[in-house]
Amino acid sequence: MRITVLGKSPAWQDADGACSGYLVEEADTCLLVDCGNGVFSKLRRFRDYTCVDAVVISHLHADHILDLIPFASGLTYAPRQQPVPVDRWPGTDSPARPRLHMPAGGREAMRRICGGGGMLEDHVENAFQLTEYDEREELEVGPLRIRFQPVPHFLPTWAIDVRSTDGGGRMTYGADSAPNDDLVAFAAGSDLLLIEATLPRPERSGPRGHLTPAEAGEHGARAGVGRLVVTHISDELDELWARGEAERAFGGPVHVAREGDVFEV
Ligand SMILES: [Zn+2]
Ligand SMILES: [Zn+2]
After folding, report:
1. Are 187 and 174 in contact (CB under 8 A)?
2. Distance from residue 241's CA to the centre of ligand 2 (Å)
3. Are 243 and 213 in contact (CB under 8 A)?
4. pLDDT at residue number 23
5. What is the pLDDT of residues 157-216, one digit of tens each?
6. Given 24, 161, 227, 263, which residue has the most CB atoms within 10 angstroms?
7. What is the Cα–Cα distance from 51 to 54, expressed in whole angstroms?
8. What spacing in Å lies between the alpha carbon of 160 and ligand 1's midpoint?
9. pTM of the model
10. Confidence at residue 167, expressed as pLDDT on a 0 to 100 scale
11. How far is the CA of 95 from the centre of ligand 1 (A)?
12. Which residues line ion ligand 1, judged by CB < 5 Å?
């Protein structure tokens, strides 16, 4: 299984960056995990977007969903998706319509965003096969099996575990979350934990919703994961500092995600 970091920025993009989006590939199967602002353009550097089999969304914050809109526009308006020849494209009777797995309320959220922006309300659901997942179900996308775990954040949020039934590799994505034991249990023994490390220090007031690099490292250590990759971290924070903090807590090497990074598990 191959994981490519398309975007790793927190809610505001790095210079020339993108928000959350990770491509997971196993043989010919292609899964996109989260689709934040900037991700569609990065996706196009690595993969033909009409070959994406499914998109799965961790939560409905803008930095994890906004590029579903340009992705839907491509699926709707691109010349090669049309039934008749356009330019060099021959026309198709079976335009790509990837599966889109969203948390409860995802359909309504996209209707409000699209309708409020002057587009058809059903722009996204027309372009994708949109379903809202039940956290207790396991999804199948080709040889990939996908499980969910609720994690504490500012709105309902699910960590996502992807394992391959072909090569046997497994990766766990923590989404955005406050410190929590559920994520540790969910990620236990995973080959790779992709975990957020948004904060330079814990939130000073109000509920917790994110992790520091040290907390991310501690979660990885407790889960006993093979590799730890910290992400959702701004280019306005010192990468070496973040890595040092995470490594001290993890007790081993940690990778700070960069766009275009590729990990094999
Ligand atoms: Zn986020
Ligand atoms: Zn969030």
Report:
1. yes
2. 23
3. yes
4. 98
5. 999 999 999 888 999 999 999 999 999 999 999 999 999 999 999 999 999 999 999 999
6. 24
7. 9
8. 14
9. 0.97
10. 81
11. 31
12. 63, 176
Q: Rounded to the nearest whole angstrom, what is the distance from the C-alpha of residue 85 to the centroid of ligand 2?
A: 41
The two three-digit tokens of residue 166, written as one number? 């072909």
Helix intervals (H) in 61-174: 62-65, 68-77, 106-116, 123-127
Phi-psi category of 133—alpha, beta or left, where left has phi over 0 and alpha has psi -120 to 50?
Answer: beta
Contact at 8 Å (CB) between 265 and 192?
Answer: yes
Centre of ligand 1 to C-alpha 6, Å, is 14
Enumerate the H helices of 197-238 as residue ranges.
213-223
E strand spans, the chain: 2-7, 21-26, 29-33, 54-56, 99-102, 129-132, 139-141, 144-151, 157-164, 170-173, 192-196, 227-231, 255-256, 262-264
Give the 3-state secondary structure of residue 13: coil
- C-alpha of residue 156 to centroid of ligand 2, in Å: 9
Ligand 1 centre and the CA of 128: distance in Å?
Answer: 22
CA 89 to ligand 2 center in whole angstroms = 39
CA-to-CA distance for 112 and 2, rounded, in angstroms?
34
94 C-alpha to ligand 2 centroid (Å): 35
Ligand 1 centroid to Cα of residue 58, in Å, is 9
**CB atoms inside a 10 Å sphere around CB 158:** 22
